[in-house]
Amino acid sequence: xxxxxxxxxxxxxxxxxxxxxxxxxxxxxxxxxxxxxxxxxxxxxxxxxxxxxxxxxxxxxxxxxxxxxxxxxxxxxxxxxxxxxxxxxxxxxxxxxxxxxxxxxxxxxxxxxxxxxxxxxxxxxxxxxxxxxxxxxxxxxxxxxxxxxxxxxxxxxxxxxxxxxxxxxxxxxxxxxxxxxxxxxxxxxxxxxxxxxxxxxxxxxxxxxxxxxxxxxxxxxxxxxxxxxxxxxxxxxxxxxxxxxxxxxxxxxxxxxxxxxxxxxxxxxxxxxxxxxxxxxxxxxxxxxxxxxxxxxxxxxxxxxxxxxxxxxxxxxxxxxxxxxxxxxxxxxxxxxxxxxxxxxxxxxxxxxxxxxxxxxxxxxxxxxxxxxxxxxxxxxxxxxxxxxxxxxxxxxxxxxxxxxxxxxxxxxxxxxxxxxxxxxxxxxxxxxxxxxxxxxxxxxxxxxxxxxxxxxxxxxxxxxxxxxxxxxxxxxxxxxxxxxxxxxxxxxxxxxxxxxxxxxxxxxxxxxxxxxxxxxxxxxxxxxxxxxxxxxxxxxxxxxxxxxxxxxxxxxxxxxxxxxxxxxxxxxxxxxxxxxxxxxxxxxxxxxxxxxxxxxxxxxxxxxxxxxxxxxxxxxxxxxxxxxxxxxxxxxxxxxxxxxxxxxxxxxxxxxxxxxxxxxxxxxxxxxxxxxxxxxxxxxxxxxxxxxxxxxxxxxxxxxxxxxxxxxxxxxxxxxxxxxxxxxxxxxxxxxxxxxxxxxxxxxxxxxxxxxxxxxxxxxxxxxxxxxxxxxxxxxxxxx
Length: 785
Fold this sequence. Notes:
There is one protein chain. Helix content is 45%, strand content 13%. The protein is built from 30 helices and 26 strands. The strands form 8 sheets. It has a 6-stranded mixed beta sheet with strand order 18-19-17-16-20-21, with helices on one face. It has a 5-stranded antiparallel beta sheet with strand order 25-24-23-22-26, with helices on one face. The protein is elongated, with a radius of gyration of 37 Å. Mean pLDDT is 84; it is low at 4-13 and 661-673.
């Protein structure tokens, strides 16, 4: 049944609008509306008239319709097409469902202020019907000529089409499911068929030249009374499940979580030493993105996600210098000192809170360049709410099963029929992949940490539960290894994840060759020079490797002979060439080696000049000489004026922290968007709005009962425009207050014709003269009684 009539309040007049309907609702019903649509009271509304006016604005209407799923939207379209007031039986027939399915939906629309009641029945809010577009359900709007087609049957129409020229049936088939409008070229190939259809009443002429329209009664007859092809679509699509063993889910998700921690640590370390520049247009260059992908052995989309993840968690940022670069923030150093479970929680928290969509990196804007990582074009606010829905759907799946991704995409599409479906589908597919990279899921199933994370989300995170989640993550992460296997081919194999000093040493002294269940590191002269340049001696490198290989102190036999020789030879050659400042001098105890260096054409830029068998001079800066020599395979060290070696420490660039850090000490964000007011708050707000409305109606009553005519009471501009639009649609006169140049207000009774662009076009009811007013000059408006 439609919603019951609310009790009449002391100021209720016959219901003619949504505002009148709201005035007649009980405090509990107003509280229900506030809880369901908090946008109507944020920012604060003055009274119920202001709430009604706000509910009829375009933004509020689109927001309310966007919350409708396919079933709700289909029923709303059917109600809109059934007439005004709505006809429940006609709407049920159009929607392809029993009347019992339409009645609760209509009650829900009424509760959400998408419909209002009068003595005649239930009416949909006009602005909401207009928001469905010019052809809701793919049907043409009502037209006086359509009345003659209302009794035509499908068989009768098909009989006419069978006698028509061949293109006629194809034309009607093209228009029957909408849009119902087409342009017919006079004298074209279809002209004869169009003329035949016009003469038979199957088509009618539209408003513009050459336009033809398929009348709604004809379309509905051919559709057999349905709004859409196929099943009604009132229920969500089924999600098929595939079984996955819970131990496999836990192990796989833990491995992925461990991997993302390693990848982000390595990315930040690399950018701390050699930060990439910020493009003039903002963002990260394509070449720098590919370098990250190559370094981490990842596909480019995965590398882009990792970079955006570090940015979302506040671990990397633009340093804001005159020539800006992307570098780790101080937050990275704090993050590095946290336990592994907490570090993972920081990353996932940043991902949940971010409004950036990493899958947009590389996509081309219409008539524009591709979107760069870390650029403004990656920002897409809807992605945050989509993440919430994806995680909610994953959480709803049993713990020993995984949902088919295409089914999740279809369900999200069903839930949001008014959104562009291709971008929505791409976003869902990308988020499912990102959840796997983060370790939230494995094989499409939500892992134990992912389930615990979802349960943790809320307006007031529980610190105890958060600590329990950290421990749970630590429990599912692979156990860190403390030993490596050194091999004779100059490689080392770590059979698991390394942490702390061991991981940093191996990244310094070796290059990662392959990843997976085990990480393979390769030693080379270049990688060992990095360690020597950082101040490590050959003996210290030997000792560190012996310790990692599990040998006793001094047991160098655990180091394969080829690796031991490589370390010794690289250390022997390291520092043979000394570089100092004159501008710069190069000194070596090996004249033959210095001969080779001076003759090297790759070093022409240094303009070396030999001044003695062991010394050469260069006008280049010390840092330039060191960098160029190392680039071309030499192993110089710097020395001071006394000949003592000067270590050149590796410079770790840091960007200043200019955004709030996510995930530190109680800064755990909620994945869910801000909720509406709680029941207690909604009830208090409803009481305030009703009291304000009662006071407003009392002032209006006093004005009506005054012994002398008074001006129209002042109204909120939004309320004024709502009254004028309603009057223009209903062709009813209104009383308006108009302020002249001196500030004096006079009252007029006019018949509104059009309200747009901040202007009112109307006709003076007394003289019949056309009038135009600026809305800003109107002090208020009320229906003329």
